[in-house]
Batch of 3 targets.
Target 1
Amino acid sequence: MRPALIVALAGLTVLAACSKTETAPDPVRAVRTTTIAPQTAGGAYEYAGEIKSRTESRLSFRVGGKMLKRHVDLGDTVKAGQMLAQLDPQDLRLGQDAARAAVAMAQASYDQNAADFKRYKDLHEQGFIGPAELDRRDMALKTARAQLDQAKAQSNVQGNQASYAALLADASGVVTGVDVEPGMVVAAGTPVLRLAHDGPRDVVFAVPEDKVGLVKAMAAQPGRFKVRLWGGDAPALPATIREISAAADPVTRTFLIKADLGGANGVRLGQTATVLLELPQTAGVTKLPLSALREEQGKSTVWLVDRASMTVKSQPVTLAGADGNDAVISSGLAAGQVVVTAGVHVLNPGQKVKFYIDPGVPPASAASAASHGVPVGVK
């Protein structure tokens, strides 16, 4: 029984092997193509930015106290010397009164010592007192004079402190921020308002670490940077790089850059803008649609069409960037080669292809286009 079973199983295996179907060959695909020719590519980088004043001050009181009033609101335009906010001046005035009283007391003491010194000097000249006593009176007069000077200086300080209860605008500009409301007790130096000074405007934007070197190199070339303002159809404004941060932001790891807009009119503070970095034109490169690229083993590749056999093969390429919707190829292709620009995801190495012909194209034109390996009927 066992030998017979083995023979039967072997026969079934042979029959199964004979009945195995062969894999069907890949179909002939119709592909859109383009013929490689040297081109010139430029391109540009775009970064989102914000319009800011060249100088923006955080205004604060030089003394502490309770804020009574705020005379301006967010967005108000102010003039130099205008009162912006006010503290409760009662304690400051009391301190000023105390300082004035100290001046009066020091003045009285000085006057008394001056009169005493005059009398003792007369007594010394008459021989009633010795030089030591006259020296003591002279020293007392000098001490009283120093105390008077100290009291006057302290009185001036208290007078200044009282005047600091009013926060004045140190320049004309626009209020861009309010940090303290009436009724709050603030310490000296606590920011109360933010004031953007009138004058030049900057556009502030950030770039990643790998583009800082490019920005520095392009900053030395005039006309490379332009600013397009949002919310309008105004033409792009020329800009000049004024400042590049020396350290990256600890959170975003980007570098802050400030570009000068010069005397541009119609630019509003806080307005959003797009900063355009125009790259120099590079000759001898190739542009291909993004649909022509694919990734193979971590490398960018394209399909090349062999005109003789009408088959495709994979060709690695090096990307240099993008120009609009086209990829810029710096190496890997030669003039005259035919590259597949559509349908790359359904092709295999060595697969037979044919040039796609648009049904709406006349036969003569279609045949001429197909013989040159260009995408027929593509607008």
Note: Confidence is low (pLDDT under 50) at residues 374-379.
Target 2
Amino acid sequence: MKSLRKDQCVLEYNPAYPPALKVASGETFQLETPSILTYIADFPHKVTVPVTGPVFVEGAHPGAALKTDVVKIDLNAGEGVIVAIPGKGAFGDRILKPEYKVVRYDKKYAYFSNNIKLPLRPMVGKIGVAPLDRGINCNTPGPHGGNMDITDITDGASVYFPVFIEGALFAAGDVHAVMADGESEVSAVETESILTLRCEVVDNLKLTHPLVVNKNDIMTVGEGRNLEEAYHIALDDMAVMLRKDLNLSFVDATMLVSQAADIKVNQIVNPLVGVRVTFPRALLPSNSMFSRKK
């Protein structure tokens, strides 16, 4: 299986970067990912976690979508780190100095303290493709994906991205052992991993922003300078999808969203905040690409 090491990484999603790996559409490959834990000796001077890649996917072209299956997340460090940084996150104005806590984990739990153990919840924080005409720091989410910090991007999930350039130039990293929606304090249990992934070109799907799909739900994703900007993008994309798949009027689509689609906060700590709107796949018709009935 083709793979990249954790030192084969970049700090931007950038269309000018040469690919570090080439894979065929539908081919399974592995990415070893670094984390804040990798660079903890340089904390707090080095806190931007790079992404492993870029990966050129043969056949990916502008106007298509790139489906990325998260086949497996292998946490391989046995420990992670939680950091606190003055001025960062919802509590940043009360954090007086940079601090970090090393957290041990096993196959089931992360041990926050002697008497607090958290169920392990591995997820991929940064995942995306290169934008069209500029580099975007991998700390920032956007239509290309990037630092979305969506807790649902875990084993068995699929993420669909709009493709902006030939080959897509996919990259991923910033894996977490545990994180709650919002990542409000600014840090998850940041750890190293080996990601097993599969990228496939989808020609009959037009996207403006990523879609996340797991066993039960489909999720539209938005980002913005504030939550209102972010949720408008995610809600509008969900309404557009439901109008098409269920043959609804715009008003009926908005009514259905209000009854069946949950708004969830991805994170409030990155340069742009993120929101996802989650809709049950069981309510989609059998002819939908994302129907659970298939």
Note: The chain has a mean pLDDT of 96.
Target 3
Amino acid sequence: MKLLTYTKENNYCLAIKTDRGVLDVASAAAQLSIAGLPVTIDEVIGRGEPAVKQLSELAEQAKALSSCWLNEAELKLGPCVANPEKIICVGLNYRKHAEETNSPVPVYPILFNKFNNTIAAHMDDVELPKGTEKVDYEAELVIVIGKEARFVDKENALDYVFGYCNVNDISARDWQMRTSQWLLGKTSDGFSPLGPYLVTADEVGNPNNLAVKTIVNGEVRQNSNTNDMIFYCDEIVSYISQHFTLKPGDIILTGTPEGVVLGYPPEKQVYLQHGDVVTIEIEKLGSLTNRFVAQK
């Protein structure tokens, strides 16, 4: 199932993307007089499989309705995960990306964090902060946790995953590299656009065999596959859970493949500029597009 949020009267409304179009969950439930359905993305994630089953049944029952079906092209989408308690990132998690940046292959996952101020949505403008001249893109697969996870073994780790989505882990490289801590270059407002869809784990299948692509102004810059990860998704979830508790709605950014601006030879490094349009595409997860604009 593909879930999304859209903005209406300054609220995020829950919807389901289907072959017919986008189903407004609250509107369909009201028209069908169905009570007790989840009406926010957080509620769906927290309730897990039973909620997904309810929504699947709702979509089937709503086929005969008309007014609760929306045209996605006319919607202002919100982030597909609206309020994670934790945003955890894995650095240097693709072998070819480590090679292109002349970095040693990590022995353990390199973890850092971002904050909720970085979350943005599909088609949002992202500001290029004043004071940095090296803003870079990073296409990444996001793991969305569905069940509380602590001391989880690798064999069962994916059972704790609700689903997956796209993110652009935007990075101000000059700020990132000022010190050994990367946080400053990663946490500007809007530096984690998510979406457009949150796709349930059953629909994605194996998360470590998905094509990953970044397109900048029509030019393909990153073109890889999650099978180049150093630490696969099950290893990542298990490893993190050994150190602290993961909760429903937490998101894990799993690293980016080769092809970022930082990996180009110095004479060919052209970082993001005002007006640039970046699209992140991951197989089965749709396309996430954002335009970059100078900060006013």
Note: The mean pLDDT is 96.
